What we know:
The complex is a heterodimer of chains A (about 450) and B (about 450). With about 450 residues, chain A is of the alpha+beta class. Helices cover about 45% and strands about 15% of the residues of chain A. Chain B is globular, with a radius of gyration of 24 Å. Chain B starts with a helix and ends in a 12-residue tail after the last strand. The interface between A and B is large, with 80 and 86 residues.
Amino acid sequence: MRIAVKGAALALMLATGLAQADTVPTPQDDVTTFALDNGMEVVVIEDHRAPVVVNMVWYKAGSADEPEGASGVAHFLEHLLFKGTDTLDPGEFSRTVARNGGSDNAFTSYDYTAYFQRVAADRLDLMMRMEADRMVNLRLDEKDILTEREVIIEERNQRTENDPGALFGEQRNAALYMNHRYGVPIIGWRHEMVTLDLDDALSYYRKNYAPNNAILVVAGDVKPDDVRSMAEQHFGVLPPNPDLMDRARPDEPPQRAERRLTYRDARVAQPYVSRVYLAPSRNHDDQKTAAALVLLSEILGGGQTSKLVRALTFDSQTAVWAGAFYDATRLDESSFGIAVVPSEGVSLQEAEDAMDRVIAEFLVDGVDEAQLDRIKMQLRAQAIYSRDNVERLANRYGKALATGLTVADVQAWPDILQSVTGEEIVAAARDVFDRNQAVTGWLTTPEEVTQ
Amino acid sequence: MKFVATLLTSLLLAFPAWAEIDIQEITTPGGFDAWLVEEQDIPFVALELRFKGGASLDRDGKRGATNLMMALLEEGAGDMDARAFAERTEELAARFSYDAYDDAVSVSAKFLTENRDEAVALLRETLINPRFDEDAIERVRAQVASSIRSDLKDPNSIVSQAFDAAAFGDHPYGSSADGTLDSVAGLTRDDLTAAHKGVMRRDNVFIGAAGDISAEELSTLIDDLLGDLPETGWDMPARADFALEGGIDVVPFETPQSVALFGHEGIERDDPDFFAAYVMNVILGGGGFESRLMDEVREKRGLTYGVYSYLVPKDYAALYLGRVASANDRIAEAISVIRDEWSKLAENGATQEELDQAKTYLTGAYPLRFDGNGPIADILVGMQMDGLPTEYVVNRNAKVEAVTLEDVQRVAKRLLRPEDLHFTVVGEPEGLEAEAPGQ
Lengths: 451, 439
């Protein structure tokens, strides 16, 4: 049984994304890449098995690029891009996609905002035309703003206010990042969301939405030359934003003190302990450290044979679930997390102590080479399985390019993962497992005895 | 937007190619029927097995046995304990998952061409020779109990369980397939071996495969994999009577946003009007951002992040359900709008334009489902369980096209019964109790 504890596991995944999700792009990807004259990057991934295409536009702007006091505006704007333009009525974008038998949606993260449609390959031109249109011609009125603000507040209710695990994750991230906006929730703090207005939305739009801040990713039954001519026709004519700023975000100061927090909520059914450490992410000059951390997360908490699961659920009955999570693909400093859901009758302190013993033993014993071989085998297989889902490949490239990596970096990544040694993994673990750069959190009920 | 109209004219010609999905029907020497889509581009196979009856075959007092049994199949088999099995699976990079649902249990497998024989041998051990070791039972029992405890405090689970219990009472549809804390605590190893024999057998299995394998190879594989299953097992469940009447009931739960599950009886999958109902539901609440419910509840009023309705043709009951979540002080308005839309469509029907939009959406979206070996294997099994012929993939869009406005109006009048619509609400809703006709 892989994920028994729905609440806990889900909360952790939403907070950071599983490492598994972006571990292995494949060297066999049939990928072409080029740039338009106005600076827009284009990635084409060919898969001719079915006459279907995924059209994605990624903006290199997410919630961590918001101005202070306007948290949630990146996500709010994402919703508002489905309202009208000079030539489209509100709602007409999605209606048109649906009329053409497609589906569309969008998502916002810390580092990017992305819009996509899945549609028959012969509808690609129309999709690009509409995406290019809303990149520059958005038209909003006060009523759009007010109604849609209610919608995002209900979205926050659904995702966060109704879920103690999500509320806990917000508090924990806010404590981990003392100066960087990764500490602010993507959906926004509620008290700031309710004040978001037309000016907030439009100023974020004008600052960030431009071809020289965007990546087009097209995947499916397409030829690169056709994509190029469509992209030049629709996006190539848009002027670049000459005032586009570097994505300079505030650095974390030296973190010198361990942080701990306890969140109590009557709706908690299954208490758990988690710890998040600041951790480097992949970057263009060095993907090796991040690769070591991906393997570390697999070794410690990646499955039935991982260290935490073995020690806490097989060798002892300390936990019903344990895992590790790490998001390698961030623009700035990421985090590495560990969580343990104690068995009935085991206190959070006992669970935390057991978790720390596993980490300490790992740092002494080092990597079990047979386990590392199994993990690497699975990563190689992942390269085969992932070719079956072209949309996931498109996401992988879009996310990487939106966080400062290149197509070459994406394609080098599988070999880098395979090249990491046990010593490098232990070295990366020693650097990351510094309690002064970490937050330990307990999620529990009002009644749980804490010490 | 001007250019849309001209593009629409060519819409119906968009997918002439779907006849190209070549489904091979196989009967193995051992007597199993299976469907295959051979696709050699990527060196792996997706195999989907489903055993009809599923968790609804649980014996009286043994609720959760089928679910726990399925969770234990990967926790030790043959000469391997749980650890050895997990290591072996990782070495082969095979992916097996075992799930229990109301009407079927499923086994989903993906394995590489390069080590197919070893992977299938491993999978076979889990299906034929599961160990049900005592330590594994206790470990997984604790996980299931943890999951049940979580559900008891999750408004989305609470609402489903309250609605199902009121609708179906003692029938298995009336309770969670996970079982209760008490019933799971009482399960023994004998209960699990009995569930294994009763649920997974030759006479109720449906098989779909897609990927890098020939019909002949698949045929041998299936006989090796399933040949030693028992011929038959427990009798299929009885039909479930739907006991809920129209109205509203509230399950008090301290949380800022109320969650509502609503519905009444639906329509059987083999009903002549099923397609008309399916198209009608797209208009009412089934299709992304375009439905009447999304338009009225979300787009116009901002009352929710999402509202949906969906047909649920189960094997032993048919339901028409919907979901919405709104802040405690706004859920009453959301419910009122949903009721109005239910009535309006029943009384006034849909427009030709809505019908045309729903059809172009459905016919265009259908081919998008076949987007990988895993999804294709799923579809192949689903079609067999629904008793559909292989030609269905070619004819399905024509069936959608054949639905007329009269069909939609007729089925709307028949299916949508605002007076029978029951809302179960979990939260602290304001202004709801007073208007509950069913209370």
